Amino acid sequence: MKKHHISATINGDEVDFLCETSETLLDVLRDDLNLTGAKEGCGTGDCGACSVTLDGVLVCSCLVLGVEAEGKEIETIEGMADGDELHPLQRKFVEHIALQCGICTPGLLISARSLLEKNPDPTEEEVRFGLAGNLCRCTGYQNIIKAVMDAAQEMRGA
Amino acid sequence: MGMKPSPFGTQIPYEEKDLKVVGTNPTARPDAVDKVTGKARYAADINVPGQLIGKVLRSPHAHARIKSIDTSAAEKLQGVKAVITCDDFPDMPVLHAAAGEMIVNFRDVTRTMMAREKALFDGHPVAAVAATSESIAKAALKLIKVDYEVLPHVIDVVEAMQPDAPLLNEEQFTKGVEPAPEKPSNIAARMTSKLGDIEEGFKNADLIVEREFNTKAAHQGYIEPHASLAIYTEGGNAEVWTSTQGHFLIRAQLAKVLEMDVSRVKVTPAELGGGFGGKNSIYLEPLAIVLSKNSGRPVKMVMTRDEVFRASGPTSGTNIIIKIGVTKDGRITAAQAILNYQSGCFPGSSLPLCTPTVFTRYDIENVLVIGNDVVCNRPKVAAYRAPGAPMIAFGVETVMDEIAEELKIDPIEIRLTNAAKEGTQTHFGPKLGPIGYIETLEAAKVHDHLKAPLEPNQGRGIATGFWATLGMETSATLNVNQDGTASFIYGTVDVAGGMRAAYSQIVAEELGIPFENVRAIQSDTSSLGFNFTTAGSRGTAAGSMAAVKASRDAITRMCEVAARIWEVEPDQVVWEDGHARPASANVGDFEPLSIAEIAMKAGFFGGTIAGHAEINVTGGGPGFGTHLIDVEVDRETGAVKVLRYTIIQDAGKAVFPEYVKAQFHGAAVQGIGMALNEEYIYDENGIMENPGFLDYRVPVASDVPYIDTQIVEVPNPNHPYGIRGVGEVPIIPPLAAISNAIYDAVGIRMRDHPMSPPKVLAALDEAAPAAAAE
Fold it and tell me: What is the reported pLDDT for B2?
């Protein structure tokens, strides 16, 4: 099968890759670029574990084709921390025990960052609805909500 | 639970003492940073050079005889390196062994991972391929020709029990029935649990309430699909990385079905993306090994979500009849349960595990529990967090609520009147030791939750739960490193990060060193002796017992080293605050030796310091919990919204309290999902209609309320820190608590699960004329 040559920017780095027409962006990230932080929980856009941003827009990378990434800027969980310095959301997730098994955590963090970019001062209800596209089976969401609210407060103060 | 404790088991008595680390909340959980940065490696994240991708061909029929399989076209496709069917595996005789909390029969295990004579459910594997890419593997599946003779199927448990139901196995005769039946049946076994004289007990009752309940199968719903990577080497060894709760059990099952020596199979558990009981059995692992053997290349296999739903174990759907008799003052005189449980395509539901929970919250003299284990054309069920117990509590706790209402007794008071306590004779054998059930009820009674006002169409419910804590084989090694730090190597899979932290806390406490100086490391199957799987709430409870034993073993060794350095006897040295010290002034005037000083000198004075534990833990303490819940029912849509939730549970001793609370949250929300939405839906052909998260709807953040938690601590007398298992109890009460709250809100008793909008609406419509007449 003939592959397509795609050029994109991932976490600030220029990246070239080859992909089949039917390959999803998630497949490309995980299988071709070894960026396995985004997870495949469903492959149908229902669980949010594969969340990344595409030119700043939150997407399920399992619903985007690799070829659609041409010329785009992609941000994944691997680019969230600044070296050893965790993003406030990452720090607050650790602090508030907002993760257990952790399989949904990268997707939730990417979603939460997008949420706070749009709404830096959300109510608890807005956080609950804002993250309703990300399934978590371990935590019952409570500590996730706490972590996001706390991170939002810190980020507003900073 | 369900398995007899070993008479040679290990228990260490509870000691009350001042604690420095245990009972605090570590700020640096060992697994957390890797998980928030995307670096934690789950099974699907692991790749090796030269690997092939394996895919499974699954039955599109609920029940069909497999007349022939033609793989020749698939084998010819370019890029296909191996194609396998049941012919690539040895057939297995009937042979029973423990797997997780369930007992498995290897005749059935080999037929579950790959169909032999018949496909028994929609999604049953019939062949598998390994190819150079996923797209080629998928194309190859389409070229495999299977000639099926479609047979009549049966999905529902009550229908499967009828004498004229389609039979899954013509050779299956119900066990546990006298005289032995002459006709085969889908009822694989009948199990009975008895106490006292049930008929006499009902004679002494002033009020008897008997109700029937039906629940649908629900899936564990872990977000990580099953994934395995296998390498079969020329020397006849197999190495597997997989998503599992119990790598030693996976190894044992693989060795059996592949007829390999146990020593030739090495299993490494990857970071686990959720299991909840569903990752104790082999699914992809044996297929990946044989595909690797036949192709000569590593083979990676990952299930799709559709495959997870269709072919990995949900919990049983059930039909349950509960009958309870009470005196006028609310004292239970007799209690009876009939439990009809789907086991899926082969026998082995969770009945042996959940039967002990039926009435164990109450002190009742006369009890009868009858369980029927029933096969039907569904995937073989797997354990799901307190396997089988939430559905029983749905029945028992709803009937208790009805009785309390009829007798005009407060629902907490009627439970207190009958509450199990130390010395209560259970209906499954042992008498209970010290437990905290009454403490949870008393705490509920004075909780602010009960004072909150309720609006119209809002209601409040209460329900309680019990689950025992499993012990079983537990091995661990504690290495004291040359710089005085400690590496604790454990073999009971840490399913979600909390166990690693708790183990480190226990070791730090025992050795008297900072939490940060201990690192807990997950072993593969080659670096420790056999460990039982993470099941039955045993992870922290049993694993920490091994941590205590290994720590004390290492301390003995360190005191010996200090004695050699000081040229005194080992019993003249004591261990305090991370230092060896002379036992008294008479021993001599020696400066205490720190763990680092001892570790550095240990090589010369006897050799490297390590402590070991190879034990069978039998000191697991039963856990009890009480849940309070407020709901609002939308009379237009039938939707039930949970407004407020309170969990009160006895943890014995919470090692990492905020994490214990996090377990409560997670279990309760799984219970809310099970109660309100989650169900397997089949069409008329026995095909699952909702094998995806869009239609199998698990709770999302906006579905659930703030959850208040309260930890009660009644120490388990057989554990040095008083620990009880905590993970399973909190999924037991939600169904019943929600059902009771719905009744309180709108006056309808929901006995059919799930309590989803269409069902609630139908019940409201049915009740409407009566309500209008009032």
Answer: 46
Q: Decide if B138 touches A, using CB distance below 8 A.
A: no
Name the domain boundary from B567, B599, B617. B617
Structural domain that includes position B574: 32-40+470-617
Mean pLDDT of chain B: 96
Between chains, do B29 and A97 touch, taking CB under 8 Å as contact? yes
Q: How far is B167 from chain A (nearest CA, A)?
A: 34
| Amino acid of residue B287 | L
Same domain? For B769 and B681 the reply is yes
ipTM value > 0.95: yes
pLDDT at B4 over 90: no
Digit-coded pLDDT (tens) for B50-92: 999 999 999 999 999 999 999 999 999 999 999 999 999 999 9
User: Whole-angstrom Cα distance, residue B342 to residue B328?
Assistant: 37
In terms of Cα–Cα distance, which of A31, A42, A25 is closest to A134?
A42
CA–CA dist A79, B37 (Å, integer): 8
* Cβ contacts of B272 on chain A, cutoff 8 Å: 101
Q: Does domain A4-79 have CATH number 3.10.20.30?
A: yes
Q: Distance between CA B364 and CA B367 in Å, rounded?
A: 7
Residues of B in contact with A99 (CB under 8 A): 32, 35-36, 497
CATH superfamily of A88-157: [2Fe-2S]-binding domain (1.10.150.120)
How far is the C-alpha of B544 from the C-alpha of B499, rounded, in Å? 9
Model pLDDT, residue B1: 40
Same domain, B610 and B629: no
Question: CB-based contact (8 Å) between B48 and chain A?
Answer: no
pLDDT tens digits for B410-438? 999 999 999 999 999 999 889 999 999 99
Q: Report the domain count for chain B.
A: 2
Quote the minimal CA–CA distance from B28 to chain A in Å: 8
State the DSSP H helix or E strand holding residue A92, giving kind and residue range, or none if neither: helix A88-95
